[in-house]
Task: structure prediction
Amino acid sequence: MTLGSAPARGDYLVDEATRQSVPPEPAWVGRVQTVIDAEHVRLVTPHGTEWTARVEDLTAASAAQRAAYDAAVPHRVGARP
Result:
């Protein structure tokens, strides 16, 4: 793992285990929703898809990846019910 410290809620991370070579697909970028234990975290995509990832497969997201994630988050208009 190339993270400088243990993941925390809200961290932007890249799950290298989701990268595919055929067909070529980049690794998923997610934000930490829950730290399950020292070896697993629960991540979420900008559109709400959640998955459990192994900490050893995670790297810190770059500034460009964080910006793309934030740009993809659907923004709500008005007050939440």
User: Anything to note?
Assistant: Residues 43 and 49 are 8 Å apart (CA to CA). The first helix runs from residue 63 to 72. The radius of gyration is 13 Å.
